[in-house]
Specification:
Nucleotidyltransferase, domain 5; alpha/beta; globular; single chain
Length: about 230
Amino acid sequence: MIEALRKVIKRMHYPLEVMLVCVRWYAAYPLSLRHIEEMMAERGVSVDHATVHRWAMKILPVLAVVFRRRKRPVGTSWRMDETYIKVAGQWKYLYRAVDRDGDTIDVLLRAKRDCAAARRFLERAIDLNGVPEKITIDKSGANTAAILSVNDDAGVAIELRQSKYLNNVVEQDHRAIKRVVRPMLGFKSFRCARVLIAGVELMHMIKKGQLDCPEGEASSAASKFYSLAS
């Protein structure tokens, strides 16, 4: 077990294997916490749904850091868009980008949908993945302004394209995330939403083959997820 994970679970009294299974199910499939509680009971493990939520909040951020270090490089042609996520009864905005092959570049949950939010997402994505050659968006004025301002301030020359047809790649990719998030029935806080959505995105990227693993190891998405803990 990696040391960072050992620290966050040191007061938890369940086997690590049980905790990882529950957290993976929650991040990978459209299941509620009570579904997972029932599924574990069928396997002879008594665990409260609130406990599963606590495990997810503690474990997923640690595994996300490990994943970023082992994430495969992405392409230089990006598709950028945002989708709606309900947090504490209000709509927030999940900025997402994928490359031309559909591999996830980065995600960021923001309270507002404006130029500042789009630019913050774009700057973070560039810090993690390098400067793209081109970015395709829809007709969003905020996203357009963000890309142009990054070009001016950073002295780069990112080609901006506005095409709803080409941007369909990222819009379709939103569906995989919304499908898993929907049974969660909204998030009670922004922090909770940020952590759990990052976990859902992490599992989605693993399924798409974006985790760099030695040849012959961790063949399934489940085994790749578990490999992040060791």
